[in-house]
């Protein structure tokens, strides 16, 4: 089942919070009103998106289409891109191992950010754009891929939007 943006993972009933009170638009206010559900500092929270776009900003001139979402993570933000268009592949990429996931580290994306790439077996890809103040990226990447793949597999074949999770519980 897909949850609306703003509805925390773990709540399978988007109409009420754990106290049984009705949720308000998107479930975000019901989540905020439940002290036991207050997100921890080490969780990642969706703050913008997902939104469609084209032209990945760190690959030079291109028309690559994607969906983009921004997560608050630690002291900064991580932007996640999802797409189906072909991406250029580095001949000898640096690899970052995040649990079972081997990620390609993109080169030349600027001095104040790092971008890592995860290729799905079916051809789609995820890019994680990390700002320096977010620290270790692997906990977010591992949790995101697990949730995203679960929701993506549950989508009907004619679904148009990628299922970006609203909350990633990392610890």
Please give a structural write-up:
By secondary structure, this protein is α+β, with helices and mostly antiparallel strands. The chain has 2 domains: 1-38, no CATH class; 39-168, Protein Transport Mog1p, Chain A (3-Layer(aba) Sandwich). 13% of the residues lie in helices and 30% in strands. It contains 2 helices and 8 strands, in the order αβββββββαβ. Strands 4-5-6-7-3-2-1-8 form an 8-stranded antiparallel beta sheet. The longest helix is centred in the C-terminal third of the chain and has 17 residues, at 138-154. The radius of gyration is 17 Å and the shape is globular.
What profile does the largest beta sheet have? 8 strands, antiparallel
Unreliably modeled segments: 1-39
**What's the number of structural domains?**
2
Average pLDDT confidence is 73
Please count the beta strands (DSSP E, at least 2 residues each). 8
CATH fold description of the largest domain: Protein Transport Mog1p, Chain A
Secondary-structure content class? alpha+beta
Strand order of the largest sheet: 4-5-6-7-3-2-1-8
Order of helices and strands: HEEEEEEEHE
Query: Number of helical segments?
Result: 2
Strand content: 25-35%
The helical percent reads 10-25%
Global shape = globular
Any idea of the CATH class of the largest domain? Alpha Beta
């Amino acid at each position: 089942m897909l949850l609306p943006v703003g509805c925390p993972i773990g709540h399978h009933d988007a109409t009420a919070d754990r106290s049984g009170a009705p949720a308000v638009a998107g479930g975000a206010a019901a989540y905020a009103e439940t002290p036991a559900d207050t997100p921890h500092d080490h969780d990642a929270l969706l703050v913008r998106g997902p939104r469609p776009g084209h032209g990945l900003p760190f690959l030079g001139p291109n028309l690559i289409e994607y969906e983009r979402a921004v997560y608050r993570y630690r002291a900064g933000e991580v932007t996640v891109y999802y797409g189906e268009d072909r991406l250029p592949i580095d001949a000898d990429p640096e690899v970052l191992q995040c649990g079972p996931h081997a990620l390609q580290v993109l080169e030349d994306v600027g001095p104040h950010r790092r971008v890592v790439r995860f290729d799905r077996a079916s051809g789609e890809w995820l890019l994680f754009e990390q700002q320096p103040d977010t620290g270790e990226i692997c906990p977010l990447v591992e949790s995101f891929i697990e949730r995203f793949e679960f929701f993506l597999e549950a989508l009907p074949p004619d679904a148009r939007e990628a299922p970006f999770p609203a909350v990633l519980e990392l610890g």
